[in-house]
Design a protein that fits this description.
By secondary structure, the chain is an alpha/beta fold. It contains 13 helices and 21 strands. Helix 12 runs parallel beside helix 13. It starts with 5 loop residues before the first strand and ends with a strand.
Length: 451
């Protein structure tokens, strides 16, 4: 007997059990941080549950979603560029914009001809419902006052694009209010995720064969400030899940590094000795203008304390050069501190003002030429430190979680997040932890062979 097909909402439904369905297509572009990446992964799962096929952003789609960032002026520019690209492949597509840029400037975003729906950094679970109701002529805004949001918005993932390592969002919001940063105004107050919810998600990820989880948030060190508990509590609880081999944390400030914290996390071998310890400046006077809540000496003490517990820790950081009023003396204080503590890698950013922050109103702007020079100096220092760290690994045996390959090599990372390459062979180590003997140091990774 022939099927009788009815058409509704561009989907085809058979009258028998063949389950032939023509799916709508959706594409997501994610800009910015790990939190945005996590939230996009969660949106993808919601779309898949609603019978959408996820396609590449450059392909034809019925729905385009841009998850925006606004941490710098360049972030805003990239967001605008992505918005303008959406209708090139399908002039009748539904275009939804979400994230920090749209939270900050929802009316500006709605003014783009391409945009139908504007969401901010809350109510993301409503996004799919509004997409389903929308047409190509709609223009709607769903952006709340983020400062009035008190509860963590639950979003769940079970499958992610990286099949070995999964991001787990445990916290949102920030109350640091650094003078250069707009993010507290786009993400709101500190809101922590219930520990039971975190554990449910991590157990599901473990059952789906993920070996490593990365705990992320807008200010992950603030976890528990609103509901009780602490970041170390989360780490030790996850460590009890047998199938999870590694627990990694995203960026933290030196103020969380204490004997108590390190004593606790060192109880489990699953904790990864990779610390992204945000510095921003090595000058006390600049740190004060930035409203950072520590001194350069405290940063140095935190580094030394980490190395007492984890001698092989890879410590990375962020530094801003050319902050308003930064003198040559202040810059040299930062340079001397970095020379002394010899971090694994330093990510260097040239200061750019963000409208709505206190720093944007500060006098004595540093010239672009000075910013460029100072950036070059610190990048050279960072590359030298990284090369020395890599060279010291030659002959060492490292435990590597393998994640990907190209036509020549398998690639993976150590617990302290050193990238490792080994030549392709008969065995396939992907999504397994294997011992590698390091043979050679390269600029961005080390090269070795399976033991």
């Amino acid at each position: 007997m022939k099927n009788i097909i009815s058409v509704a909402n561009n989907r085809l439904y058979p009258s028998d059990k063949d389950h032939f369905v023509q799916k709508k297509k959706a594409a997501i572009m994610t800009l910015g941080c790990k939190v945005n990446k996590y939230e996009s992964e969660a949106i993808e799962e919601l779309l898949a549950a609603a019978n959408y096929q996820i396609v590449d952003f450059s392909s034809y789609a019925d729905v385009y979603i841009i998850n925006t960032c606004t941490v710098t002026a360049m972030s805003d520019k990239k967001s605008r560029q992505m918005i303008r690209r959406t209708r090139k492949n399908n002039p009748n597509a539904i275009v939804a914009v979400m994230g920090c840029y749209s939270q900050k400037n929802p009316i500006e975003i709605l003014g783009f001809d391409e945009v139908n729906l504007v969401f901010g950094t809350s109510n993301r679970a409503e996004l799919i419902k509004e997409i389903e109701k929308a047409n190509a002529f709609d223009k709607k805004v769903f952006v709340d006052d983020i400062m009035n949001i008190r509860d963590f918005e639950e979003m769940q993932i079970s499958q992610v694009s990286d099949r070995t390592r999964a991001l787990v969002k445990i916290q949102d919001g920030c109350d640091r209010f650094c003078s250069y940063c707009i993010i507290p105004y786009t993400r709101g107050r500190v809101r922590s995720r219930a520990l039971d919810s975190i554990m449910t998600e991590v157990r599901r990820l473990a059952e789906n064969q993920y070996k490593e989880v990365v705990l992320t948030g807008i200010h992950v060190a603030s976890y528990g400030k609103d509901i009780g508990g602490s970041l170390s509590d989360v780490i030790l609880e996850i460590a009890e899940i047998e199938k999870i081999d590694r627990i990694r944390i995203s960026s933290v400030e030196p103020t969380i590094i204490s004997k108590d914290f390190l004593e606790k996390v060192s109880r489990t071998e699953k904790f990864c000795e990779h610390f992204h310890l945000s510095m921003q400046s090595g000058s006390d006077s600049v740190l004060k203008r930035m409203n950072r809540r520590y001194r350069a000496s405290e940063y140095k003490d935190a580094v030394e304390l980490i190395r007492n517990y984890y001698p092989n820790a890879a410590i990375t950081t962020d530094v801003i050069v050319g902050f308003p009023g930064e003198t040559e003396t202040e810059f040299n204080e930062t340079k001397r501190l970095l020379e002394e503590i010899k971090l694994y890698e330093t990510h260097v950013f040239k200061y750019s003002p963000r409208e709505g922050t206190k720093a944007a109103l500060m006098p004595d702007e540093v010239s672009p030429a000075q910013k460029a020079h100072r950036s070059d100096v610190l990048i050279d220092l960072s590359e030298s430190n990284k090369a020395a760290y890599h060279s010291a690994l030659i002959g060492e045996r490292l435990e590597v979680l393998f994640e990907s390959k190209d036509e020549n090599f398998w690639y993976g990372h150590t617990k302290n997040y050193i990238k490792v390459a080994v030549p392709l062979g008969s065995s396939e180590p992907v999504n397994s932890i294997r011992t590698v003997v390091v043979l050679k140091a390269e600029k961005d990774f080390v090269f070795g062979e399976l033991d």
